[in-house]
Structure formats: C-alpha cells, structure tokens
User: What shape does this take?
Amino acid sequence: STGDSWGIFTFLCAALCNLPALPALNCSEELGAGQSIQQTYDLTRYLEHQLRTLAGTYLNYLGPPFNEPDFNPPRLARAERVPSATVDLDLWRGLTDNARLAANYRAYSRLLCYLRVLDGQVGTAELRHRLAHFCASLQGLVLSIGGVMSSLGYPLPAGPAGPPAPPGAPAAPNDFLKKMDDFWLLKELQTWLWRSAKDFNRLKKKVPPAVVTLRLEARGF
Amino acid sequence: VSPAADPAVISPQDPTLLIGSSLVATCTVSPDFPLKAEDLYWTLNGRRLPAASYATLGPSTLSVALARLNGSRQQSGDNLVCHSRDGGILAGSCLYVGLPPEKPVNITCWSKNMKDLTCKWAPGTEGETFLHTNYTLKYKRRWYGQDNTCQEYHTAGTYSCHIPKDLALFTPYEIWVEASNRLGVAVSDVVMLDILDVVTTDPPSDVHVSRVGDLEDQLSVRWSSPPALKDFLFQAKYQIQYRVEDSSEWKVVDDVGNQTSCRLAGLRPGTVYFVQVRCNPFSIYGSKKAGIWSDWSNPTAASTPRSERAAGGCDPKGGEQNTTLRRELKQFFGWVKKHAYGCSNLGIKLYDQWRVWLQKSHKTRNQV
Assistant: This one.
C-alpha cells in the first residue's frame, strides 16, 4: 500500500507540476509536505481572488437583490446539500490534521460538482468561460489537497460523489429558488476558501518543511 | 429548524411575458406560517413596489399589479419577491419580459480548403430581445438529405458556427439559421451555395522580399502557392499589398495573376517596406468563379538600397527624382502600348529592357 500512495503522490505531483506522469518523473524539486502545504495555501488565496471576479459577474447576472452587498436570504432546506464551512471554533481547533484535510477535500470535491452543473446551464458566454476557468483551478486545489494528504500518509476520503446529490437529484423546483441555490453555492465557496487559508496556515506550523521530505527520482514507470 | 414546506407560494411562477404587458401576481403564505396578508410586501429587482398596487385577496394572500412591463433587466429574469414585514424573503418568481426573436440575416459562409464550412450571421434588427436567444444553424443538401444541425458555435465570433466534415462537393446546400427564445422562433431566409463557390485558402507561404540588384526603386517579391490546394485543380489569383514602414496606408497590386513572383517598382530608395500577399483560389475545378480571398500573409520586410551618389541629397532632389520617374513611366506606358501586346506578365521585363535602353540613350545624350 506504500506503493499505492507513491503512485498516487507521483500522479498528483505530476498534475501539480504539469508534467506527463509517465515515464520518468523529472520532478527534481523535493516536495516536502511542508512545501505542498504552502502551495495549497497559495492556491486557496489565488482562488479566493478569482472567485471575487467570478461571483461579481455571476451575481450581476442574477440581478438585484442577489448582487446587493447586504443580501442575506434564508438558507432553505435544499441548500443544506452544500457542505458548510462554518464550524464551532473549539471544534475547529481540535481537529486532527487528517480530519482537517479530509473536510477540505470533501467540501471542494462537492463544490466542484455543483459548479460544473452550473456551467452547463444558460448564462452569457463570458460567464461560462469564467466558470470553466474557475472549475479548472478548483480541480487543481482538490488535487493539491489530495497530494498533501498522501504525503502525510493519510488515505483520501471516499469518492466525492459520496452521499446524495448526483446532478439528477432534487434540483430547485423553480427559477427563483435556483437563483438562491446559486447564491449560496458562491457564498459557501467564499467561506470555504477563507477558512482553508486558516486551515493550511495551521497545518504549516505543525508540519515543518524539513521533517518529511520525499525525493522523487526517475522510477522507471 | 428549517421547515419542510416553502414559507409562501407565488403565482404565476416564472412566467414569460411580452414587453408592455401587465401582470397580477399573488403571494400566498403557507398555513404553517403565522403571517397575514398585511405583514407582506413586494419588491421587483430589489426595489419596493408601492402599496397602492397591492390588493388583499384573502387572509394570507396579497397580490400586486404590474402594468406595462419593460424588457427584463437581466436575461436571468426580473426578480419579483414576496417579503415578510421584517424584510425576510418568503418566495420569489422570475419574470421573463421581452420580445420574440427576429429573423437572423446576412448569412455568409466560407470553406477552408474545401474541407469544412464556417458560417456567420447577424441577429435581426438591433437584436435586443431581453431574453436569452438560442441560435441553431441548419443545413441540408438540396433535393435530398435530411436536415443537419451545426454543433460547433462561436468559432468566428458570437454568431458563427463551424461544420468540420461530411460535406459534399458539386452539390448545392441549403443553409439557414433558427433563432429561438421563450417567446418564439424566427427562421432566416435560406441561403443556397455550393462549397466550391466559397472556398478560401491559407495565405501564401514562404513570402520572400529581396532587392533587385542595385535598383533603388524596386523590390522583388516571391512566394509559394498555399500547399493545401496543391492536389486540387484551380488557378490562384494573388494580390500584394505593401506600405512604407512608418505609414499605415497600404498600396495594393491587383493584377498579379497566377505567378508566384512579382516586382514592385516606383519605390522610394533607402526605405523599409512591409509586404503582404494573399491568395484567391480562382476557378476551382473549372468553375470560373472567384473564391474568397485568404487572409494576408504575415508582413515581410525589406529595404530598398540607397544609392551612394544621393549622399548630399535632400528633399527637393527627391521630389525631382519622383517627377522625373513619373514622366519616364508615362513615356514607358506609351511605348508599351505600341510595342507590347498587353501582357502584364512581360511588363516588368520590358520595363527593365526599356530602362537599360533609356540609360544607354541618356549616356549618349550626356556625352554629346
């Protein structure tokens, strides 16, 4: 099973480095877990920035009151599908590294699914283009978190599809409720990115860069 | 505790309306909720609607009357919302107010190297329908075959589509565009064409521009015929355009014909010129029709030599040289009319011969 995690980590590293995964990985950088965490942190900040523009454009497309700064509609039952980032502070502090990473991994995998459904629907060409770009970056984040987990020896959480909400399942019954769902999706995305930055900051302090170093050489795949 | 039922229901839910129409919407609070009609109010796109337009239809039902609606503020629909007194949202309905689409117009198509077909069109009139409008390009072979739908959109701008394969030559196609939105459908006029009539090609490749010996006012341009068409029977027509480095005015040489080289004359000495060439696949398979001009090749630069004896030259001299040259050219054309048989191909060679003759005669004149 060490072989498996090697394989996974190699693949994830390749995805991160944008190199072909086969045959020999000339990934001569030593990606210590500490550095992976730093990269993941950087990625969440980048996504936060990207989201600001995307959300602005999307909310303008939804129209007022959705794009008003103080808009705060009720979070209806169906919106519970989207994993919430807000959590009790003590609970958050007490999370193990594994649990912390797993929560992030699961959340972004789910959010990515919902975002992709959004992308398939009506909207302007500009919006679809921005959404596609954001989804690609978000995919990168999921891979990056997976990479960190593997480098620390944690198993990846079971498939992102997990519990309910395959695309067919209860979509919003009318257009207005769908707009509310979209609003909350973007809101949760924002909150998660804000929270992840804190999660990864915390992890950075607990995993010094020098301790866990994995060297990647041409392994003749 | 989030309730299972929605707090309220709006009717009509997400209606589609023509611009200028009126609407009466009702908000009915769910029986689980302790709210009465007088606790409710309406907003449209975030703006509170005047209480004067409300009417109480029941203990927990409030209606609002909207008159002469304008086109939707955003294509996702106007947001009509029923609120409780404290501002909370109870329910909402998206209003789609607009116009049915107009017939798309100005369909133009071109085929790159006879392999595919790209078409573009324009929405009818000003195109603002306020509703999301879908465009579908359809095509079929005249007299037989079923309708086909184009799949790859936006390849050459918003209103365009690309058909990558399975196109037949020597047969007319009918092409049209259907525009549809929530309020209706509009179909463009049918355009009929044969792929062979709208062929374009890549620009000529390997464009080289070089000096002609020491001649200060000439440059020689050479290029290759676009390779993609080498297997097809066609004649190419070429056009050259050139400009001085610091000018934006292009001069076009039109009568280049079928050759893959040309000499530019009457140029300024010691000047850098940018040259581009384009190709028109004329008379594909003997069709006698012109195709569509390719894009211009990337500009190639070259400079005319500056003669040493013009070292002390300044503008007046240059001007003089120009008028002298023009006079000479006029004389030359007169001479050509008399002695050549109007073959533009031979024009430049004759011109050179004539220049040589002229210089000889100048020498003899100056010697006298």
In short: Residues 118 and 183 of chain A are 11 Å apart (CA to CA). The mean pLDDT of chain A is 77. DSSP finds six helices and no strands in chain A. Chain A touches chain B at residues 60-66, 68, 73-77, 80, 122-125, 174-177, 179-180 (CB under 8 Å).
